Amino acid sequence: MAETTFQRPRTTVVLAMSADGKIADAQHSPPEFGSAEDYAHLERQVATADGILFGSATLKAGETAMRVVTQDLINARLERGQPKQPAQIVCTRSGDLDPNLRFFQQAVPHWLVTMKAGGQPWQGKSHFEQIFTYETPTQSIDWVQTLQAMPPLGIRKLAVLGGGQIVAALLAEDLIDELYLTVCPLLLGGTSAPTPISGKGWLQQEAPRLELLSVKQVKDELFLHYRRRR
Ligand SMILES: NC(=O)c1ccc[n+]([C@@H]2O[C@H](COP(=O)([O-])OP(=O)(O)OC[C@H]3O[C@@H](n4cnc5c(N)ncnc54)[C@H](OP(=O)(O)O)[C@@H]3O)[C@@H](O)[C@H]2O)c1
Fold first, then answer.
1. What is the number of other CB atoms lying within 10 angstroms of the CB of residue 209?
2. How far apart (Å, rounded) are the C-alpha atoms in residues 93 and 169?
3. DSSP-based three-state secondary structure for 148
4. Which residue's CA lies nearest to atom 26 of ligand 1?
5. Other C-beta atoms within 10 Å of 154: how many?
6. How far is CA 201 from CA 112, 176, 178, 185, 205, in A?
7. What CATH number is given to the structural domain containing 144?
8. 155 Cβ partners below 8 Å, 6+ apart?
9. Is residue 2 part of a domain?
10. pLDDT above 60 (res 60)
11. Whose CA is nearest to atom 21 of ligand 1?
12. From the alpha carbon of 166, which atom of ligand 1 is closest?
């Protein structure tokens, strides 16, 4: 791992966006604009990961986590010594999640990244197998400590499936290594539509720089693979 002074999982963002750079429409509907090829690409990324990280807004929009369903991909996981399904790790500062979400019925490991107060209602209950509550002195999630706690629990590769708030939080602390962006052939527009990275952003002189590793075109979609240049 390049230039990090602590052990943490390798992190890969995987997102599909419109040609104008939106990851959902202005109503924040779950994205259904990717092709079957993009869905297969997403499933392959999920299938190689030990853990899948996503924000509470992404979970609330879709109600379920992205599982591995293709038997060949499950078999390949088992051959690599991975469990059938990666850990599904939802991130919320407040801990305010509906315990009746379909997510909790899915046959996957459910993990939670939150603050101490956000974790309290879930402690001692069966909804989450792991609960991380590392906080910074400024009362936000301590991402460095959270990620450092993961390799001993088997998380060496983490796929970050959005949304823009979670990706922004990790990028702000230089905790993202790679990005897969699928550019889909539609325009969503709208100032309130989420983008791959929200947060405060950077001035152009200070913006994180990327190296383009590959570009693949399949029909009208472009599959971009970037590495964070450090
Ligand atoms: N096209 C795609 O590939 C794709 C992928 C994923 C999502 N999406 C779409 O994107 C939208 C959601 O994205 P989003 O950016 O609005 O939200 P998000 O990143 O999924 O989740 C935001 C939530 O995460 C928590 N959070 C925010 N900042 C945090 C931080 N610094 N540390 C810890 N927790 C933090 C907060 O949870 P609490 O409020 O619970 O405290 C916040 O409300 C949805 O419409 C979804 O369908 C699209």
1. 9
2. 12
3. helix
4. 92
5. 15
6. 26, 15, 18, 25, 12
7. 3.40.430.10
8. 9, 50, 51, 87
9. no
10. yes
11. 55
12. 19
Whether 125 and 89 have beta carbons less than 8 Å apart is answered as no
Q: Which domain, by its residues, includes 26?
A: 10-229
The answer to whether residue 3 is domain-embedded is no
pTM, whole model, 2 decimals?
Answer: 0.97
CA torsion 74-126-14-148 (nearest 10°) is -100
Q: pLDDT category, 227, cuts 50, 70, 90?
A: very high
For ligand 1, pick from 23, 145, 198 the residue to mutate: most ligand atoms within 8 Å of CB.
Answer: 23
**Residue to probe by mutation, ligand 1, list 25, 29, 58, 136, most atoms within 8 Å of CB:** 58
- Taking the CA of residue 33 as reference, the ligand 1 atom at the shortest distance is 1
- pLDDT per position as a tens digit, 12-33: 999 999 999 999 999 999 999 9
User: Encoding tokens for residue 169?
Assistant: 């939080």
